[in-house]
Amino acid sequence: MPRIYIILSGLLFAVLQSAYFFVLEIRLTAAYPSFLAVTLGWLVGSVVGLRWGSRLAEMMWINLSLLAFFGTQTLLYKFPYATWMLPVAALMIAVSGAQAGAFFRQNREMLKSASRLFFWENNGFIVGWIVGFTCFVQFGPVYLIIGPAAMALSVALSGVLARRSVFEFASTPIALSDAPAGAGDDTGEGDAVRF
Known about the structure:
Elements: H1 2-27, H2 32-52, H3 58-78, H4 86-107, H5 114-139, H6 143-170, E1 174-175, E2 192-193
Helix pairs in contact: 1-2, 1-3, 1-4, 1-5, 1-6, 2-4, 3-4, 3-6
């Protein structure tokens, strides 16, 4: 179950990134500044998320990321082709990028190694870019509203299930050889401790 959550997280990051790209291309500029804003904003946000990402809960990051995306979309619909909005958009993109950095910081121990976490997330990310492009071509601007919200919901649900299965595994009794017999509760079962 954790792999599904990790892959879906990669899908969400790619869907958000591609949606930002399409919104900026349509409403701001179809030149290199849009691509540069998405790329640099996402990378800077990822570094910030890696550094300080564990301070907020995962659902808070998902909500902030969606709020930033829909805020960017709303501002660019209100002020189309206003190049002064580029730094604002890059800042909002950085908020979503911080979610990606926080994901790696918070979930680095979910699998046996960080390289496996990156492998599965990256597979989802690649598929997510393909899905994002295909859905935008097929459904147009409607996708820019439904796509990120639907992916965020699927990540939130899979995250709950993945965490539950990880916590259920972690809550199995572990025998501690150092613990003296009867050192637990009043029932005399001191040789097993629940975490």
